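Technical appendix A lists one of the benchmark inputs used to test multi-chain prediction within the project. The record comprises two sequence entries:
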Amino acid sequence: MKANELQFESSSECQLSFDKNVYSLAAIKKAAYKFAAEFATNISDKEKIEVKITFNSDIKKEEYPKIVQGFQHEVLDQDLREQIAKETGPIRNVILAEAFSKTALLTEE
Amino acid sequence: MLSPPKGKFRSLDTFNESLAVGYKLLPFRFIRLDSNRYVLTNEVGEFIVVDDNTLRELVSKVLQPNSDIYNDLKAKHFLFDDDSNVALDLLSLKVRSKYEQLSQFTGLHLFVVTLRCDHSCPYCQVSRQSDDRLAFDMSKETAAKGLELTFKSPSPNIKIEFQGGEPLLNFELIKWIVIEAERMNEVHKRDLQFVITTNLSQINDEILEFARQHGILFSTSLDGPEYIHKANRPRPGDDSYTRTISGINRIRESIGPDSVSALMTTTEKSLGSVKEIIDEYVQQGFHHIFLRPLSPYGFAIKTRWYERYDVDRWLDFYFEGLDYILKLNKDGLPFVEIYASIILNKMFSPFGTTYVDLMSPAGHGIAVIAFNYDGEVYASDESRMLAEMGDKTFRLGNIHKNTYEEMMLSDTLLDALEQSITESVPSCNDCAFQPYCGSDPTFHYATQKDVVGHKAFSAFCRRNMAIMRRLVTLLTDDADARRILMSWVRI
């Protein structure tokens, strides 16, 4: 759903839903954390992941669609980050282990 | 046509075969740069700017092998293929260089030799005392214990910085510490440096001669042209500007042109005058300026000066200043903005920074330690500023009561360090600017009562993200600016 088509339930609330086959709960939670200065969220994991957004009182109503759009982009970005982390996590550990293996920072147990 | 001797080169088909196998991703972070571009950074902070489609093609493994962008991403260690397995070893080596300084431990040792001061700056972040109250002077016994602890650090580079108040009001103790430290260093053999952070109002021939003999450097405050400096930094006689400028000139004449540096602090009065402030630095013969916001400590909180502008107003001030400095450079005057220079060095130098605010883990204790006038030991300059406000959260111990081991292994220090590693801080861990940034636990504690802090509400995060976005944009889009900014990097 496009942000500008959203129905704001009251003066400061709206509801989004995300397909669980596409997005992870963690990606949505991480995105919501980043937007804490703009809105509070109530996230429920049902057939779909439902996100109820309540805008903070200092946010102007005309800014709502743009902020929601930013949140949707951030969810996509978080999803991509999960893919990258999944693929590169083992390589990252190899790099870090190799980087510190020859220093005095590590001691044998 | 000459053909290469057999065995010297692999055939072109060999490379095409390796490309056909595909590529693998190396770890990287990304963040939106603007409406249609992302900035990607790898484990050591090498960056590349790509559009939305390229990012998704990269992750989906459909980038065209040997295309320009493929080769760029490969050269900067964002992907590797069968032809570049050495990338892992190279990256490991670079990671090791970035973190090498951690093993050197504490380099900067602050001695708060007195809290007395002859100025009455409303933004004073250290909560100075009036200059007749000797109870706020450090004793020789405390200084001696401080030196003992200083030389317990394994760092090959020991910098002793005299802080206040106005440290020159206790010059006799400074002399004693310098001579004693030099005596101790005959055994310890470190690279020993001294800096006096001073408003220069007390400078005289005796001090200049002693500083010249012992290679002592001076760091002073210059907030801009006379009307701003005097308003920010009042003293009896209304002559703070004259005394500072006179002191700068006397040090240069007596000791050398690079023996004195200056720092400015932004107040509400500075906000519309960044060009005038920079012009003042140029006029006084400085080659750089550090455009700094107020910090949330001491009288800056009590007088509410800290609240008089928000981070967005300061950023407008900073960017106007940065643009002006770039223009000065384009017009032929080499001049550096120090904060940008620190970040650029984190971007392009193979080594990490010792600038405490932008370290991960935080520089608390492990890069800097503060010995207060009363023998209390703090994890940083800001920690002792907080303590003067009555909050001793970052107190590591007392010079007379605790051992070095007790202080450096205290939960106070280790907990703050552990929580300040940006690689594991929410929002920082996946931020593309993480390799360039720090965590500043004292700032977040002072503003949010939490050493980690919620970055969505953090002025530190907002300020650094904006500056880093601007620098990446300039480096990418403006060839002239890139040339100038790259000249600020000391490889």
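The domain at 3-101 of chain A is CATH 3.30.70.60 (Alpha-Beta Plaits). Helices of chain A lie at 25-34, 64-101. Comparable benchmark entries are summarised in Table A2.
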